[in-house]
Amino acid sequence: MIKNTSYTYLFALMLFSACSGFLDEKPNKNILVPESVSEYEALIDNYDQINLTPVLPFVYADDYYTLASNWQRFMPWQQNAYLWSDDPYLPDESPLDYFLMYRKIFNANIILDKVNTAPEWSVDDLNRLKGKALFWRAHAYYELAVLHLPIPESGFDESDYFIPLVTDAELGSTKENANAGEIFSMILGDLENSLSLLPEIPEYASQPSKYAGYALLARINLYLGKYENAREYAEQVLAGPFTLMDYGMLDSTSSYPFNLFNSETVLFTNMASQGTVSNDNIAFITADLMGSFDSLDLRLPLYTFSNDFGTVSFRGSYTGDYSVFTGIGLDEVYLILAESNVRLGNEEEGLGNLVSLLEKRYSGQIPILLGEEVLLETVLSERRKSLLFRGQRWADLKRFSYWDNQYYILKRSLEEEEILFESKPENFQLKIAQRELAFMK
């Protein structure tokens, strides 16, 4: 169903992080280079590489907790991240999240380098490949920016924070280090340029479409505090072939109530599988979060189940199985619309956006209080519940601290020790792993 590729050069790339800095590695002369349109298409449609997102935002966020006995089974960087270290990797550890995103960028740059040579391919082929490559390069850089960079134009001093900006497929070439403003300028430019090139309806939801481009732009503009832009892009998505599921029609007795590529899936991505951090016998939902759901809320019985050992686990992923859906669903689009409208002072429109979603999520009267500040709180509360285990909570906590001066004290307990994290802007920029720092200018 999903295209894959087994080119030798892709396996060679997997080895780069084991020997030195990924971005400093010289290309192997024996690496095979694709030639045909179908080979390049297979490279950018390679689901097992392209549709992955980092694990660190999930580990750092407060969607879950685990027990000390489970924490002991984590890899060292996961243990450190669970304790909110801003430098989780040991000196000899490979930063796998970092590698996964730059591999995606590298694959996209292979496509863009080829397209720029003006091969004798059809215009449709060239446009389609370029659109996909621009989309996924932007997607990867956004994930990196959420982890390592401040939010630009927020007033926070971003002068000490950089990540490598890679715009070609020559792994051994000189890389420029770019700040948050430069990275987001590229992200937005790539996405906007991709819109006219992407198909309206892709073959699979794992491939980007024009609507996925609008949805990702809506997500990113919300993060950037550009609510007018976020609203406009989100509205474009509503014209697409997506429909909200009526949660009242779903089977809460099913092991996994939601189907893969369901009617709400605008773009499918999932969190990379890195150990056991999100397994249902590892990651548990707190009583406080459980208590935030109303008794008439249909999400809770579909999202959760009780384990035999007295904890509550998550099962409501739009992947249709145990893996964590990090893509963009239509529910998130409605929440972006509602939040943007309320923040812009359009309370009636924002309320309408929220009600359109919650009508499909509640079995009775929807509990909504009016008034701009109260309505915003309601929107954000519903966002918290709808996007549970979606990989978006860390970015939300970060933007709340930047734009709203809203700070939380997150708490975790481990072996009778309480660990605290204060969600201030300066605490959200993770350090680049030590083994990669040597290869940055």
UniProtKB/TrEMBL annotation:
Pfam families: SusD-like_3, SusD_RagB. It is found in: Cell outer membrane. The keyword Acyltransferase does not apply. Residues 332-410 form the RagB/SusD domain. One of its GO terms (cellular component) is cell outer membrane. The keyword Hydrolase does not apply. InterPro entries: SusD-like_N, SusD_RagB_dom, TPR-like_helical_dom_sf. Keywords: Cell outer membrane, Membrane, Signal. SUPFAM superfamilies: TPR-like. Residues 22-222 form the SusD-like N-terminal domain. Its main location: membrane. Belongs to the SusD family. This is SusD family protein. It comes from Algoriphagus aquimarinus.
